[in-house]
Amino acid sequence: MTFTGAIGRACLFPLRAIIALCVALRVHPNALTLTGVVINGAAGWALAMGRFGLAGWIMLVANIFDFIDGKVADELNLSSRFGGFWDSVMDRFSDLFILTGLIYLYATLERPDYVLIAALTLTFSVMTSYTRARAESIIPLCKVGFMERPERIVLFMIGAFTNRMAAVLWVILVLSVLTVLDRIYFTWRELRSDRRELPA
Amino acid sequence: MKPSRVATLPLRMIWHALFWTFERATWQYDLMVIAILAFIWLTPPAWLGDPMASGPGLIGIIAGLLR
Hints:
In chain A, helix 2 (29-48) packs parallel to helix 4 (81-108), helix 3 (52-75) runs antiparallel to helix 6 (149-161) and helix 4 runs antiparallel to helix 5. By secondary structure, chain A is an all-alpha fold. Helix content of chain A is 82%, strand content 0%. Chain A has a single domain (12-197), classed as Four Helix Bundle (Hemerythrin (Met), subunit A) (Up-down Bundle). Chain A has seven helices and no strands. Chain B has helices at 3-7, 9-18, 27-42, 45-48, 57-66. The longest helix of chain B has 16 residues, at 27-42. Helix content of chain B is 67%, strand content 0%. Chain B is built from five helices and no strands. By secondary structure, chain B is mainly α. The A-B interface holds A 2-5, 8, 50, 52, 105-106, 109, 111, 113-114, 144-146, 150, 155, 158-159, 162-168, 170-171, 175, 178-179, 182, 185-186 and B 18-21, 24-27, 29-30, 32-33, 36-37, 39-41, 43, 45, 48-54.
């Protein structure tokens, strides 16, 4: 067993109780998704105020909602195509709230270098999702690249709890750029192989 | 392993790190996570010009002890 797999299983244990509670109360999964985004907005505010510890805890709570919405939808047989769309759109808002909070913080600290780094991180975080969504409209699956949303969330929490946000931003930025490039290359390669297979 | 494969191992490692196709909870994923956490926690914040972080970080502490 890998250590990341073990951590994932350990985290799933308390989440099962929360999922069971939401299922018992028949909380609609779309309401859970929306709650997560609103709480992530609060995390963005805490980051903007430079209160990283508080932001870390708020992000932890927000992302519990984010994680359980799909599981609750499955348990309640409420999975729908709109639910998937709603979840993806709300996820983008969450990313934008967090990074806008950091941009505001670095702007108030008069650090244009980190304003730029946070803005580029925001750009490539959105492009990571966009490239996959657009690619999967023309090829079956485009799941390449390391830096997806769960990785970003965990890194933001690590940055907030251990006060190493600058290093986290660099990591997310560099790996998001690579992920976008991976997805462009993968889609190009898939489409090229499709063209070769077509009869002349 | 063939000698030619051994010779190209570093290049293939770099390629696989750049063009990432591994799933979560694989040993390759674990290695990447360790490298990322090492960068975040060991790099002295001053090297990155971190406006918020305090403390020298582990590498900074070791460098300070060696001085």
